[in-house]
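Sequence, C-alpha cells quoted for completeness.
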Amino acid sequence: MGLLPYMAVFVKVVETGSFSAAAEQLGTTASSVSRQVASLEKALSVKLLERTTRRLRLSAAGADAYAHGCEIVQAAACVMALAERVNDAPQGMVKLSAPRAFGRALIAPHIAAFLSRHPGVDIQLQLTDRQTDLIGDELDLMVRITDTPPEGLAARPLIRVSHVICATPTYLNKHGYPQHPDDLARHHCLYLGETPGDNVWKFRHLETHDRVSVVVHGRYVTNHSLARRDGVLSHLGIGCLPRFVAREALEAGQLVEVLPQWDYMTSYYGMAWLLYHPNRFLPPKCRALIDFLAEKIAGSPPCAVEG
C-alpha cells in the first residue's frame, strides 16, 4: 500500500515526459520525483524507465506498470468523487477540452446558461487544436472530431462536421461566380495557412464523385475561422469556413455558397464526439455537462466546423 503514491508519481512522469515537468505539476522537486520512482523500481526489482541525457523511455516492464498505474490513478479519482456522488446536486470543477473554432462557436456561448442551471459546478474550458488526452491533460471531457472515436473511451455524438466555400454577393458580382473548382485558381481565396498544403483545396462532386484539387492564392491567410469569416464579409475573396460559422451570414444573404454541388474535403471532417472515461460512477457534474451539451449542440440545426 505504501507504494501507491510512488505509482501515481511514476504515471505522472510518463505522462509529462520528464521528472522536472512531473515535479512542476505535482508541486515538488525533480529530485524528489526521481527518488520516488527509484524507490518504486527498487521495491519491484525491475527497471521501469531507461534514462538518457535527453529523454526517458519506458522499459517493457515499465509499459505494463504504466498501464496498471493509470488504472490505479483512475480508481483513485473515482474514490475522490464519492463525496460528490453522494450529493444529488452536481458540484465541482469540470475540465473540458475542445477544438478552438468548435469550442468558441458551439460550446462557449452556452456556458453561462449551464452555470446558471448548475450553481455548484465550475467550468474550465480549454480551446486547442492539439490532440488532447484525458489522463495526460487531466481532463474530465474532451471533444474530438473523427468518424472513429478512440477505443476505450465512452463517446457521445454531438454534430456532424463539414465545410462551406462562400463569398459575398459584392465580391462575386465583381469577380464572377466559379463554375468549377479549377476556377478558384483565378480568384482571391482565404485559407487556413498553418501548413504548406493548406492552400491546396480538395473537392469531390456530390453526384459523380469526381475528385479535383486546386492550388488557391489570396492576400489574406489566417488560421482562425472567425477571422476568415470577417475577411470574407469584407469582400476580400472566397473563403473556406465551418458551416456553423457562416450559417447566420448565409441565411441573411450576406454570404453566398460557392460550388454547392462539390464537397470540400479536409482531414478535419466527421462527427464531433464528446469523449469521457467509460466509468459507471461518472460524477454528476460530468453527466450534467454531457447531457447539457448534447441538448444544446446535437439538438441544434446541422452545422459544421473547421479548426
